[in-house]
Every structure is written in C-alpha cells, then in structure tokens.
Design goal:
Radius of gyration: 19 Å
Structural class: alpha+beta
Number of helices: 6
Distance between the termini: 34 Å
Order of helices and strands: HEEHHHHHEEEEEEEEEE
Length: about 190
C-alpha cells in the first residue's frame, strides 16, 4: 500500500483536520525529516490552501481544531498547534492552546518552522549571499574549513545536504561532511 492509502485507512477516508471527505491529499508536515505515515496528514484542499497561504485563512473554518487537536497522531497535533498559534489573535484559539498538551519532542517539531513566534523573536539563518536558509536545504562550502577537534578539512565546493539549523543562533548550521556531523558558520556557505 502507498502512503495515500495508509492515511486514508488511518483517517477513515476524511480530512484529519476538519473531517471533510472530498479532494483529500497527503500533506507532509514540515520540516520533513521523517515524512511517511508518522510525518504526514491527510488533508482536504481547503485546509491545505489555508495552511500554505496564511493570508487566506478563514478562522471559522479552523474551529474544527477543537476536535482534531486531540488526535492520537503527532503530525495532526503539530498542524493543529501551528494553526491555533497562527489564529491566536482571534481569542478562542488561545483557549484551545491553553488546554493542549504536546510532549517535548512533538512541541519541538511544532515550533521547528517558527510558527507561533513573534517576528522579532525568530532566528533567521542566511547564507553568504543573504539568502534565507531552512531546515533540509542543501548548501555548498565557499572556502576550505578546518574542523575543530579533528584533522579533517572540509574542502571548498563540498556539498552539505539536508542541513539543520541552530534555533538559538543564526550564525550556525549543522550538516554532514564526509560522514561526520559538523557545525558550520553560515557565512561560509552558499545555498544550492
């Protein structure tokens, strides 16, 4: 069975967020590290368009989160938490957020995209050209870098795939070079 069929079986062939039964699609909850069944949600076109386009959000549509926030599926809870944070200026979503419980690992996943943070508090990672970097991006080194604590030198032009960002410092990213996980300064990379 494919992912779509697995999600249809799990959800009873309805949107895991609002319960709609038409025009259902797979939504991989970012940042996509696991994907698959545990990292995806079956969502209708209405929910998907509003998740991906924050300017088109209809707050009344999302009153459905009152039910879906209690899902047993972590991916559904993450999307619910993010949408409630996006809408918390409405008043009622804050009440639901106050009731919602996510364990530390799921909460970290929910916060990984910066949803729910004030723009002033968000840490933005930029490469040497000022291009915004995100989790999972691929970058290339623009100069030879000595790796502290080892004799390894990461050569200029080396591609670093599927980077992860340091959520507390905009100058640091992590990635694997020659099979070794290293911390890299953003000023020495260029986004591919």
């Amino acid at each position: 069975m494919g992912l779509l069929e697995d999600l249809q079986n799990r959800s009873g062939n309805q949107c895991e967020l609002c319960g709609a039964t038409e025009d259902l699609k797979v939504y991989e909850v970012p940042p996509v590290s696991t994907g698959g069944l545990d990292g995806s949600v079956l969502a209708c076109a209405t929910c998907l368009s509003q998740i991906e386009n924050p300017d088109t959000v209809d707050s009344n549509h999302w009153r459905c989160l009152n039910d879906s926030m209690w899902s047993e599926q972590d991916a559904v809870k993450v999307v619910a938490w993010r949408m409630l944070n996006r809408l918390k200026s409405e008043g009622w979503p804050q009440d639901l957020l106050d009731m919602m419980y996510l364990d530390d690992e799921v909460l970290a996943w929910a916060k990984a995209t910066g949803e729910g943070q004030d723009a002033a508090d968000m840490v933005v990672h930029r490469d040497s050209n000022g291009v915004v970097l995100e989790n999972g991006d691929n970058v290339v080194l623009i100069k030879d870098l000595k790796v502290k604590g080892s004799s390894m030198v990461a050569k200029q032009g080396t591609a670093v795939r599927r980077i992860s960002l340091d959520r507390e410092n905009a100058k640091y990213i992590e990635g694997k070079v020659d099979g070794q996980q290293i911390v890299i300064l953003t000023k020495y990379v260029k986004k591919l």
